[in-house]
Amino acid sequence: MFRVSSEKLDVQALSAELANSSSGALVTFEGWVRNHNEGQPVESLEYQVYHALALNEGQKLLVETQAKFDIHGILAVHREGHLAIGDIAVWVGATAAHRGVAFDACQFVIDKIKHRLPIWKKEHYTQGEAKWVYCSDHDHSPQIKVDETAYYSRQLELPDVGVAGQQRLKESQVVVVGAGGLGCPALTHLVTAGVGKVLIVDGDSVAVSNLHRQTLFATSDIGANKAHAAKQRLQAMNPLVEITALPEMLSVENVSEIIATADVVLDCTDNLTTKYLLNDACYLAGVPFVVSAIYQWQGILHTFLPNSDSGCFRCLSEEAPASDCVGSCVDSGVIGAIPGLVGGMQAAEALRLLLGQTPVTAFSSALIDLRSLSLMKFKRKKNTACLLCGPTPTITGIWTETYEPAERDKTLADFEIDYESYLQKQERFKPIDIRSDMQRALSESNGDTFANSMPHINLTRLQVFRTLPDNEQYLLVCEHGISSKYLADILQAEGRKNFYSLVGGLTNIRGELT
């Protein structure tokens, strides 16, 4: 319901109106009267509303919102009359199963209220005459109507697409988990191709180190949630599709609901546990699953179809390898062209699926090597002993214990030391920063005291480590504890028992210190 009120708003009472035991989230927006506007001090505001049209158009807007978003309830109230600094001028609340959907609904209503409702305000300045204005935060730029046929005209010419294929895309729903280096190009191509509904799942925030490869983001997005920032950019690219942002990490608790109505799911993360979780959920739900990964100059791409003789992700490896076997972009490095290419190929495979075609990687996975510009395919076959898709599966549902770290992940090697243990006997060790020269330089520029206090020997200079005196004990330190364990393992195997690895690396230390 949309209302206009001449009284101060009771936000608790408004929220109570939306109470729903089946909802998992209530998201509210409050627009306050502030004490300045465009450099001029403001002492109060006065709102005038054309009631008949505002109430009719406001209610129509909320009905549209209810139809557009998967929400349980929506309420909006706009003030009229004279308002003091700090008063709430407009309040919007939405309930839904997930807060991301409710957030998107609130944002949609706020943006539309600015453009569609006949509401004027009078600004009372501390100096000078008061002035009636149409809400100053309205966008007065011309609203360009995008012609659907013109937008898709080039791909409509393709025999594999045409009008019928474009309609199939328009009626499709895709879930993309991860809006990073792989997710940004995949999302761009899916949205601009005209996939009707796209759900972006990512609980991470944009960091400055993301910008060289995550092309949906700008410096102004640093610190913002990736799912929301990606949605904003993508919606500007193609206003013809419906995009929903879910600013959450994928989990055992939410995965089944997230993929329930999807026609295809893309994994664009660098997290193996997430890949296994998505693989299992998609197989059990009968949803096609497109997954990719990159390592330095290489990428790999798979498509897994339900009940296929080519098996599932678990057929490649029954369980996720120990976390210390897998390097991240931080440790291994990445150049933006690699995830850009692989993410684009991932989108192409998903589009083939949606168009009713068989993806190239449905039966043979593709290994892409950008150093030699080569692509090698290797045929996959179902593992008859697979825990998920084999004839006698043991994974028949999504259970927390399936995705808990393996015992080998929880048990420390003899040469691993956690930060607390190090603090208790730090006089015995000489810490050495083994990160790359660039990582070290970033620590120096950021004033990372602990990292800067250590001598720096790059991981690649193995011979230097071999020449260090045997009568000292060395604690190898990297960003996440993966590279340091790898190097300590090598040196220990050579009989150098005086080398140890700091568990969790500098990332863990920063967490301990905050």
Strand order of the largest sheet: 12-11-10-13-14-15-16-17
* Fraction of residues in H or I helices: 25-40%
- Helix segment tally: 20
CATH T-level topology of the largest domain: Rossmann fold
What structural class is derived from the secondary structure elements?
Answer: alpha/beta
Q: Give the N-terminus to C-terminus distance in angstroms.
A: 45 Å
Could you give the count of β-strands? 21
How many structural units, i.e. domains?
A: 3
Strand content: 15-25%
Q: Rg, please?
A: 27 Å
Short description:
The protein is of the alpha/beta class and 514 residues long. It has 20 helices and 21 strands. A hairpin with a 2-residue loop joins strand 3 and strand 4 (40-49).
How would you describe what is shown here?
This protein has three domains: 2-134, Molybdopterin biosynthesis MoaE subunit (Aldehyde Oxidoreductase, domain 3, Alpha-Beta Complex), CATH 3.90.1170.40; 148-406, Rossmann fold (3-Layer(aba) Sandwich); 412-513, 3-Layer(aba) Sandwich (Oxidized Rhodanese, domain 1). 34% of the residues lie in helices and 23% in strands. It has 20 helices and 21 strands. Helix 2 packs antiparallel against helix 3, helix 7 (183-193) packs parallel to helix 8 (226-237) and helix 7 runs parallel beside helix 13 (337-354). The chain is globular and about 85 Å long. Mean pLDDT is 87; it is low at 134-143 and 323-330.
